[in-house]
């Protein structure tokens, strides 16, 4: 090994050190190595935190973030069409039932089925949601408190991949899946929903579906329950 090699010079210097100094050298090297490992771990953690997840947890369901929504609205004519949907809901008097962007959520399993988290329903379907939003605002919320939408309109592709019914009211922009904002128990929630469904009766055309946890479905396109 050439004598000018830095490694060779360092090794020769180390070999001439007394044993106690060699021990100190290893202690220093160990401390430096440990610090480097800690710095690497910190950097990896910060990198992980810097990568924003495209969703947040809502009662155990994955809801796409506002950043994901903005990305969707920047595509094609989506922002213009969404603005027109907002205006329609205002004219129909139901814009206060929920934030209009919530109605674009296709579902909570879009990552699993590789489908977009948002979709804008065809204009012909927009009137279908009016009665449903009125029912949520005027009947449902007074009974169980504020709710959040986890699924509204679904495209045919999304509904098929998600295993939805071929007659799903999500496809016609009439049905929504909801979760309560409060910590109401499943038992109490079911009692309130069934009481509401029975009270409104066929005149409301209310469809009610109760799923696991505190997730449930509401529409106004056919009086039934499951």
Structural overview:
By secondary structure, the chain is an alpha+beta fold. 47% of the residues lie in helices and 12% in strands. The chain is built from eight helices and seven strands, in the order ααββααααβαβαβββ. The protein has helices at residues 6-15, 19-50, 66-73, 78-91, 110-113, 128-144, 156-161, 186-200; strands at residues 55-58, 61-64, 147-151, 176-180, 207-210, 216-219, 224-225. Helix 6 crosses helix 8 (186-200). The longest helix has 32 residues, at 19-50. The N and C termini lie far apart (81 Å). The mean pLDDT is 90.
Q: Kindly report the average pLDDT value.
A: 90
Proportion of residues in β-strands: 5-15%
- Helical residues, percent: 40-55%
Number of DSSP helical runs: 8
* H-E string: HHEEHHHHEHEHEEE
Give me the Rg, rounded: 29 Å
End-to-end C-alpha gap:
81 Å
Question: How many strand elements?
Answer: 7
Q: Give the oligomeric state.
A: single chain
Give the overall shape. elongated
For the largest sheet, list the strands in their spatial order.
3-4-6-5-7
Largest sheet descriptor: 5 strands, mixed
Look at the helices and sheets and give the structural class. alpha+beta
Q: Extract low-pLDDT stretches.
A: none
Which terms would index this structure?
226 residues, alpha+beta, 5-stranded mixed beta sheet, two-stranded antiparallel sheet, 7 strands, 47% helix, 12% strand, elongated, membrane
């Amino acid at each position: 090994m050439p004598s000018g090699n830095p490694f060779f010079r360092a090794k020769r210097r180390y070999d001439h050190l007394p044993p106690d100094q060699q021990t100190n050298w290893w202690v220093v090297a160990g401390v430096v190595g440990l610090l480097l490992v800690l710095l690497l771990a910190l950097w990896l953690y910060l990198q992980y935190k810097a990568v924003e997840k495209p969703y947040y947890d809502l009662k155990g369901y994955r809801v796409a973030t506002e950043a994901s929504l903005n990305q969707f609205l920047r595509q094609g004519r989506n922002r213009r069409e969404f603005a027109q949907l907002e205006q329609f809901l205002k004219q129909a008097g139901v814009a206060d039932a929920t934030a209009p962007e919530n109605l674009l959520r296709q579902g909570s399993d879009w990552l699993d089925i590789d489908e977009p988290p948002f979709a804008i329903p065809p204009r012909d379907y927009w009137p279908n949601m009016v009665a449903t939003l009125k029912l949520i605002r005027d009947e449902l919320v007074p009974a169980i408190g504020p709710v959040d939408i986890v699924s509204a309109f679904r495209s045919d592709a999304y509904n098929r991949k998600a295993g939805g019914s071929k007659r799903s009211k999500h496809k016609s922009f009439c049905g929504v899946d909801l979760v309560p904002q409060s910590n109401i128990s499943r038992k109490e929630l079911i009692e309130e929903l069934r009481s509401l469904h029975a009270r409104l009766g066929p005149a409301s055309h209310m469809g009610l579906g109760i799923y696991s946890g505190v997730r449930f479905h509401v529409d106004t396109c056919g009086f039934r329950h499951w």
